[in-house]
Design brief:
Largest sheet: 5 strands, antiparallel
Radius of gyration: 18 Å
CATH architecture of the largest domain: Sandwich
Number of domains: 2
Order of helices and strands: EHHEEEEEEEEHHHEEHHEEHH
Helix content: 40-55%
């Protein structure tokens, strides 16, 4: 497994923004987050494993920059992507409950990770209740996203599945302040989309071409432009309830 490189600096702005959406973080909360996350920062190249299934977890990883993913792989090489992780999102904050990791965490792009040891995370949540509450909310949303993905694979058509994935990633990016008008970063390949939606690459290609002809989206230069978000949400049967944006608005 590639261990990447470790540095002493980091930019946890995205995490502060993400957690602030779930709780009223004070300036002291944000400063403590920054201090905790900049103690150990690791850069991992694109398409490398961060932690493999079966490994013993030593840190809670926070994506500071770049995209990561969780996945399971069968003995014959087939892979199911379980979720994508965007800047400012934590990778399994309760991971220390596990003796061995039951999935693989890997990079999509080059990723800068903040690595937080178990004891430091425990001290952080004990000292700052607002941060603890925000972390609980992120776990609830992660579970809700997983349930929505299961629903997509079990019930949505191919067109609806991909449209739903595009809606989710765009809305999550926008909520984290990572969009420019109707455009967001989109480093996923058609193989990634196929492994996330349970489809073949050929079917993914045909479906995306159909969506382009319908004037819904455009993918180029590792970016996605959504031409009509309301219409894309309608064809995807997309409802933002599972992302709990109403709680974010209250916060």
């Amino acid at each position: 497994m590639d261990v990447g490189s470790v540095s002493s600096s980091g930019t946890p702005t995205a995490l502060s923004l993400n957690l602030s959406a779930f709780g009223k973080l004070t300036a002291a909360d944000r400063d403590l987050l920054k201090t905790t996350l900049t103690k150990r920062v690791r850069t991992v190249p694109a398409r490398r494993d961060i932690v493999r299934e079966g490994d013993r977890p030593h840190f809670v990883n926070v994506v500071l920059e770049g995209w990561a993913q969780r996945s399971k792989q069968l003995a014959d090489g087939r892979r199911q992507i379980l979720s994508f992780l965007l800047p400012g999102e934590l990778c399994d904050p309760n991971i220390f409950i596990l003796k061995r990791l039951d999935h693989t965490l890997s990079t999509v792009t080059t990723v800068r990770l903040g690595e937080v040891p178990k004891q430091e995370l425990r001290e952080l949540v004990q000292a700052r209740p607002a941060i603890a509450e925000a972390l609980w909310w992120t776990e609830l949303v992660a579970g809700a996203i997983q349930r929505e993905w299961t629903t997509s694979i079990g019930q949505r058509t191919a067109y609806e599945r991909i449209a739903h994935l595009f809606c989710e990633l765009f809305v999550r990016s926008r909520t984290a302040g990572l969009t420019d008008a109707n455009t967001c970063e989109f480093p996923l390949t058609q193989s990634d989309i196929a492994d996330a939606t349970g489809m073949t690459q050929v079917h993914v290609n045909r479906t995306i071409q159909e969506m382009r002809r319908d004037g819904l989206i455009d993918l180029r230069s590792r970016q996605m432009t959504v031409h009509d978000l309301d219409r894309l949400m309608a064809v995807a049967l997309f409802n933002t309830n599972y992302l709990h944006l109403d709680h974010r608005a209250d916060a």
